[in-house]
Amino acid sequence: MFYSLTEMRGAAMSLTAAASGLVVFLLSVSVVQGQDGWRVSCSSTEICAVKGSTVEIRCSYTYPSSWNNRVNTLEKTLWLTKQKGGKHVDLNTVSEYAGRVEDLCGNNICTLRIRNLRESDSAEYRFMFKTNQATYWANPVTLSVTDLQVQVSRSGSSTLLRCLSSCSPGQTSYIWFKNREEVKEDTSSYAYFRYESADSYSCALKGYEDFPSPSVYAPKLPSVSVSPFGEIEQGSSVTLTCSSDANPAANYTWYKRNGSANLSSVKVGPRLVLSSIQSSDSGQYYCRTENLLGRRRSESISIDVKYAPKLPSVSVSPSAEIEEGSSVTLTCSSDANPAANYTWYKRNEDSPKASGQIFNITDFRAEHSGSYSCGAQNKLGRSNSTFHLIVVAWSSTMIVNIIRTTLGVLILILALLLSLWMRKKKALRSTTEAPEEIELDSDPEYENNSHTAAQTEDTEEQEDMV
């Protein structure tokens, strides 16, 4: 049925309010199209378009040249969208559409063109035309703006891809691209592919091939950055950031290698923060990126933490007691990065005794005894270690040597005395046993010779005793 005259006047008043207040309320009374020359129709009631593309909604209309015995003339055409609360608003008054909307009318055909579509443009749109006697509405056209995405899942060596859109199933066909080349068209949003790590895939809606989805692909070679840039000092905070181009987004894992030590995972996530960094944090770091389509690892980056010298340790060689006249070698060692410079000092002396890690003292004397210190220094700080050197006149080594020498002399003397005693004993034994061994006769000459021999032997024995 048609509007009554009262309804027509109400509609005209509503339109006047719309022109002044920029809001149009949908009349509760519908108009049956096609009676007495009144008609409006649109090319489609549901449209699915892709984000970033351009859509056109076309409606045609007719109206009688005369109505209620009066001339019926066109006054205005409008495109409206329904917003929250059920209000219909003139598109030309909505800031979100500024610069993107065109209303093209001619020969009783009006086309709404919306460029650079946004997902927020998904809404219900209505065409309306107004004559000097009535207002006519077209049926609503529902626009769905979809941001195409490819969903990835793996099944063995095959990859299942799904083109995700907000369009109703069966409303459109899907075009698949491999490395930007069209390889498949299907009404199903699913597609199986045997994936290679260098491949990339995307999908598009038929008729919107110039607006495909973002491609999916394995992670590209990751890059690692260090902040802050430059020399790293102990106690500062350092952030390592891993970046890799990948879709779906990659997962990140950080690894550290200390020299030839085993690899260890230290952190999951694109950023590794080393707060209050210590010398033990020095080493080689790299990150690994991974998604359902593959994995890559970055080049290693070296973290070299600089720090001031730690408390030096001093070694003395020889380590035993220092004898007067001997040579002494002092060695100073300190953990530092960069390497420390060493200076040797003696207490109560202004000028340094030596520089360098090793300090040699030859012909050590009593005046060399005292307190010494080793200073280790680099550009980040200084550390000192103090020690004492004392010369000894009689060292335990000397005493041991003297004892050994004395014992050796005593042993030699005892051996000599023992030898003399043995000789004497042997001589006495010989004198005692001589008469028994010699058979005596009455020859006086023999007796004299024997007597003379005995006297000679007694004389030798007395000389031996002396």
Automatic annotation (TrEMBL):
SUPFAM superfamilies: Immunoglobulin (SSF48726). The keyword tRNA processing does not apply. Residues 140-203, 222-302, 312-392 form the Ig-like domain. It comes from the Eukaryota. The keyword Signal applies. InterPro entries: Ig-like_dom, Ig-like_dom_sf, Ig-like_fold, Ig_sub, Ig_sub2. Pfam families: Ig_3. Keywords: Membrane, Signal, Transmembrane, Transmembrane helix. PANTHER family: B-CELL RECEPTOR CD22-RELATED (PTHR46013:SF4), VASCULAR CELL ADHESION MOLECULE 1 (PTHR46013). This is B-cell receptor CD22-like isoform X1. It comes from Gymnodraco acuticeps (Antarctic dragonfish). The gene is LOC117535722.
